UniProtKB/TrEMBL annotation:
Subcellular localization, as worded in the UniProt entry: Chromosome, Centromere, Kinetochore
Record key words, sorted: Cell cycle, Cell division, Centromere, Chromosome, Coiled coil, Kinetochore, Mitosis
Record's subunit section: Component of the MIS12 complex composed of MIS12, DSN1, NSL1 and PMF1. Also interacts with KNL1, CBX3, CBX5, NDC80 and ZWINT.
Record's GO cellular component terms: MIS12/MIND type complex; nucleus
InterPro entries named among the record's database cross-references: Centromere_Mis12
Keyword Transport among record annotations: no
Protein name as annotated: Protein MIS12 homolog
Length: 125
């Protein structure tokens, strides 16, 4: 996961892009586990229909776990690439874009404006 806090994006979206990516990662991983369980159940049902089968459910479980580790490794590799692209190209606000609440900061104050504001503050105090 990325270390950059992306606070401006969090201000705009209402969540951090990293949190979004983490939730996507967890959802994909959950679906991967569910699919692997379903595959295992189908294999076990098919083996029940085969007479004199020497393959035990424990062997099926070991093979399923091995395949799950293989799939998870490839998934993690692909997801890290996808995360980089999402955080760089999709969930990043370009530096030249201001949020509506920051439009007042778009025009810098001159020294005169600053002095005028300081005098106004002193009068109000």
């Amino acid at each position: 996961m990325s270390v950059d806090p992306m606070t401006y994006e969090a201000q705009f979206f209402g969540f951090t892009p990293q949190t979004c990516m983490l939730r996507i990662y967890i959802a994909f991983q959950d679906y991967l586990f569910e699919v692997m369980q379903a595959v295992e159940q189908v294999i076990l049902k098919k083996l029940d229909g085969i007479p004199d089968c020497d393959i035990s459910p424990v062997q099926i479980r070991k093979c399923t776990e091995k395949f799950l580790c293989f799939m998870k490794g490839h998934f993690d590799n692909l997801f890290s690439k996808m995360e980089q692209l999402f955080l760089q190209l999709i969930l990043r606000i370009p530096s030249n874009i201001l949020l509506p609440e920051d439009k007042c900061k778009e025009t810098p104050y001159s020294e005169e404006d600053f002095q005028h504001l300081q005098k106004e503050i002193e009068q109000l105090q």
